[in-house]
Amino acid sequence: MMNPTPLRNHRMHDPQALPLPLKIDHSPVQHFAYDNRTVRDFLWATLLFGVVGMAVGVLAALQLAWPAANFNLPWTSYGRIRPLHTNAVIFAFAGNAIFAGIYWSLQRLCKARMYSDWLSRFHFWGWQAIIVAAAITLPLGITTSKEYAELEWPIDIAIAVVWIAFAINVFGTIARRRERHLYVAIWFYIATIVGIAMLHIVNSLAVPVSWTKSYPVFAGVQDALVQWWYGHNAVAFFLTTPFLGLMYYFLPKAAERPVYSYRLSIIHFWSLIFLYIWAGPHHLLHSALPEWAQTVGVAFSVMLIAPSWGGMINGLLTLRGAFDKVRTSPVLKFLVLAITAYGMATFEGTMLSLRSINAMSHNTDWTVGHVHSGALGWNGFLAFALVYWMVPRLYRRSLWSTALANAHFWIATVGILVYVVSMWMAGITEGSMWFAFNDQGRLQYRDWIEMIRAVQPFYWVRLAGGVLYLGGIVLCCVNVAMTVRGATLLADEPAEAPALAPDTDHEDQIATALAIPDRRQRGTALHRLVERWPTLLTILATIALLIGGALEIIPNLIQGALSPRIASVQPYTPLELAGRDIYIREGCVGCHTQMIRTLRAETERYGEYTRPGEGIYDRPFLWGSKRTGPDLAREGVIRPMAAWHYQHMADPRAVAPGSVMPAYPWLLTDDTDFASLPDRMRALAGMPIYTPYPPPRIAGAVQEAKSQAEAIAGQLRSQDLRLAGETKLADKEIVALIAYLQRLGTDLGKPTPAGK
C-alpha cells in the first residue's frame, strides 16, 4: 500500500519558486493513530444515499415522462419529491463524500488525529439525523420552497449546530498539526467552512410561525437576490471548493505525481473564492432585479471562467507522465472525467450567464442538463474515485474487481452523456418554441401543451440516462461489499511524526520574504508564510468572501427600502395567504414561475413584465427557475374562472390534454387550516420590513377567510353543476388555493396577453 504521507508544498512542481530557509527539526518523534472509523461511516453513508438520491431522481424523471407515476398521493407527487431528490444528492450523497474525504486527508496533511473523536461522532450522527429529517419533512410538504434551502427553521438550526461542530473539529486539528505548512487542499476546506456558514445563516433568517412553518425576513426582489446569492454559492462552496480540495489531495496521491504548479494553485484559490461569491445574480437576468445587480452577476460570471479553468488545467497537467496509470486505474479514470466535467460545466455556466444565451436557456431543461453535468460528472465521479481509493486502504485489501469498477465508469459515463444531451436538446427546443413568432408577428406556439408534447420524447431519454447512472452506483456498492466481506477495518491507523516546533521568528521570516528581488517570487514566498498561519489565512479568506456578498446585498436592500411602492399592491387576504402556503407546500414553484421577464415573447404570452414592487409582500418570493408549465404571474387575469382551477387540480389532463402535471385530489377533501391564520399574519406583521396587518384584521382573520371562501364556493357551485350540492366546499384547501391563483396579477389592473 502507498505511503499515506501527503505531498509537501515545497515538492510541488514550480521551478521558479524560492523556498524560504528551512530549519532542521530535532523534535522527538511522536506516535499517534488516524481515526478511520469516521471515514468509513461517511463512506457507507455516501453509498447509501447515493442509491437513495439517484433512485428518487429516477422516479421524478419518470413522473415527467409518465404522470401516472405520481400515484395521486401527496407524499409521492413531483412537487414534493423533487426537493427530496436535490437535497439527497447534494447534502446526503455529495455531503457525506466531502466529509469522508476531508476526515481522511486532513489527518494525514496535518499529521494529527482529528481534534475530538466525540465531535467526529456528533458530526456524523448529527448530519445523518438532518438527512432523515429532510426525508420525512419534504414529502410531508414542510418546506420553505427556496432552492437548495427548502428545510424549515428547526432543521436549519440543527445544520448550523452540526456545521459548527465540524468547524471546531477541523480548526482544532489544524491547531494541533505536526506539519507547519497548510497544503492547498486545506485552503479550500477552510473556505468551504467559512463560506457555507455565512451563506446558510443569511439565507435562513426567518420568523417562525410554528415548528413546521416560518416566513423569511427578506421579501420579493430582496429575497430573490439573497436566495440566488445563496443558491449559486451553495454550488460554489459545497459542491466546488471542498471537491477541489479533495482533487488537490487525491489526484497527486493516485497519480504518484506532484501537483503541476504551486503558483497556479495560489491563483486558483484566491481568485475563485473572491469571484464566485458575486455571480449569483446571473440566475435572475431579464427579471425585476435591479439592472446594476444583473450586470455585476454577468461580469463576474464571465471572469469566473479563468480560475475555474486554471484549476482544471492544474489538475489535468498533474497527470503528465502518468497516462499509463490512467488506462489501468479506475480511480484515475474517475478523477480525469470528474475534472473534465468540472471544466466543461464551468465553461457552460459562463456561457449561460450571457444575456443573449440566458434569454433562451433560462427556465428550460437546458439548465437542468447543465446542473446535472456538474453534479453527476464532477461531484459524482470524484466521490466514486474517493470510494475506490479509500476502501482498499481502510480494509488493507485490493479492490474485489477492477473490471467491475471500469464497467461502473463506462456505464455512468454513458448515462451522463445520454442525460445531458437529451436535456440540451429539450432545452433548445423549448427556448426556440417559446420565442418563435409567425409571419404576422404573433407567437407561433400559443398553447403550452404543444411545447410539452415536443419535449416528451427527451424526457424518456433522460430517464434512460438516469437509470444507467443509478445502475453504476449499484455496481459500485456490490464491488465495495465484496471487497470488505470478511475484512477487518483498520480503525486506528498507526502513524508517527516529529512534534511541531514553535514558530516564533515571524519578523525574520517576513523580512526574508520581502528581501527577494523578483516580484513574482516574493509574492510566492509571502504566501508560503500565510500558509504557516491558519488564523491569518482564515481571516483573509473571510474578507474575500464578505466583500462580494456585502456589496451586492446591502445596496439592494437599501434600494428596495427607498423605492416607491405601487399603491395598488396590497397584502394578501387571510384566505389568499392560506392558499399561497398550500401552493408552497405542494412544490408548485418547481414547475411554474411567477416572473414575466422583460422579453417581448414573454410579454406577448403573459402580459406586462413583472415590476419590483409587485413582490413587496411575497415571503418567500416565488419567481421559480424552471417552466414545465406556464408562468402564473398574471394567472388571475388570464384564467379567473374558479371552476377551471378546480377541475385542473382534480384532473389536469381533463382540461389540458397532454399535461404532465400531477393531480391533487387531496386538496378537494382536506380542510383548510383556518385556525393558524392569525399566527401567520402576526409573524408577517412583525417583520423588520413588515406586512401591514393591523391587530383588528389579525383578530378577525378566520372570519374574513371563511367569508371569502364562501364567495368562491358560490362561484364554483354556479360554474359547475356537479358541485351544486357540496355544502362544505368552502372549507376545502382547493378553495384557498383558488383564492390565491385568482389574486395573481390583479393588483396591476387587467393586462391582456397578446398570446392568448
Characterization of the model:
The protein has 28 helices and four strands. With 756 residues, it is mainly alpha-helical. Strand 2 and strand 3 form a beta hairpin. The termini are far apart.
Short descriptors:
about 750 residues, mainly alpha, two-stranded antiparallel ribbon, 4 strands, globular, disordered N terminus
Short overview:
The protein is mainly alpha-helical. It has helices at 37-65, 78-110, 117-137, 153-175, 184-203, 220-238, 241-255, 262-276, 291-303, 305-317, 323-328, 330-352, 355-361, 365-395, 402-434, 448-484, 506-514, 519-532, 534-562, 574-585, 600-606, 635-638, 642-650, 652-655, 677-685, 695-699, 701-719, 733-743, and strands at 29-35, 206-210, 213-216, 492-498.
Biggest sheet descriptor: 2 strands, antiparallel
**Nearest-integer average pLDDT:** 93
How much of the residues is beta strand, in percent? under 5%
Q: Give the overall shape, derived from the CA principal axes.
A: globular
Strand order of the largest sheet: 1-4
User: What percentage of residues falls in helices of 4 or more residues?
Assistant: 55-70%
| Derived structural class | mainly alpha
What is the strand tally? 4
Q: What is the count of DSSP helices, taking H or I runs of 4+ residues? A: 28
End-to-end Cα distance: 69 Å
Poorly predicted runs are: 1-22
Spatial extent as radius of gyration? 27 Å
